[in-house]
Amino acid sequence: MVLETLVTARADDGVQGIYRHASGATGTDMIFSVFVPPHAPGTKLPVLWYLSGLTCTHANVTDKGSYRAACAKHGIIFIAPDTSPRGDGVPDVDVYDFGQGAGFYVDATQAPWATHFKMRRYIESELPDVIAAAFPQADMARQGITGHSMGGHGALTIALRTPDRFRSVSAFAPIVSPIHCAWGQKALGGYLGQDPASWRAYDACALIEDGARLPELLIDQGDADSFLVDQLKPQLLTAACAAAGMPLTLRMQPGYDHSYYFISTFMADHIAWHAERLTA
Predict the structure, then answer these.
(1) Do 155 and 62 form a contact (C-beta atoms < 8 A)?
(2) DSSP codes, 155-222
(3) pLDDT tens digits, one per residue of 88-132
(4) What's the whole-model pTM score?
(5) pLDDT of res. 278
(6) Is residue 177 annotated as part of the catalytic site, yes or no?
(7) Which of 82, 97, 107, 225 is catalytic?
(8) Of the residues 33, 149, 170, 177, which is catalytic?
(9) What pLDDT band is residue 160 in, cutting at 50, 70 and 90?
(10) How far apart are CA 163 and CA 219, in angstroms?
């Protein structure tokens, strides 16, 4: 594994880096960012993954997420992957909610997407191995995960499928049930085919209904989010968690929309919440 350093900069007394590597999962180069907070030599630090939403790259949260001061305060490494494979040889369509920038954290099975769109494998298996090898400060026994919108969907489903990997799970305005919204139906149908049974592994509510469990969840959702009613539907997650007896804290935030103004407002609070569970 060869990791290419594209940028490093001092920030909040730590190091913000942007890196590139050749991915075996996607068959493309992949770029991600990592913030390593200040720490004493030899210290092992917990890891918080952040999965981004539709149209985003690693850069959106890196530039606008307001996480570094909180990560420095609590001693947490922050990792932000891309949302899809990219490049001239990667298929794409001229829409914002499918193709490049919209990998939905699935392993595609349908042509032409199946060759490169293996974001589940990339996030669940490959990138953690890259991080463990390249960042000896990272304590891979103490991981948390969060994300926004499509990335919130990714965070919830990845954690529900691999509960032993994560000590803490949260999300900002997640797509909680892709099976029941237009974004999800388009993505899952296009990447996986038209059998809804194959979609359940990528739907947080379906996973909970099918027996997956986490100790607890934290969700922040703006009540002025233009996607709230048609795409996000947090009430479905509330019902699924209630039926399963799984603790959920859903905080409806008055006046907040779907943007990084919302995310950056509550990012430090999420990091503190994760820190309580990752540093105990």
Answers:
(1) no
(2) HHHHHHHSGGGEEEEEEES----GGGSHHHHHHHHHHH-S-GGGGGGG-HHHHHHTT---S-EEEEEE
(3) 999 999 999 999 999 999 999 999 999 999 999 999 999 999 999
(4) 0.98
(5) 97
(6) no
(7) 225
(8) 149
(9) very high
(10) 17
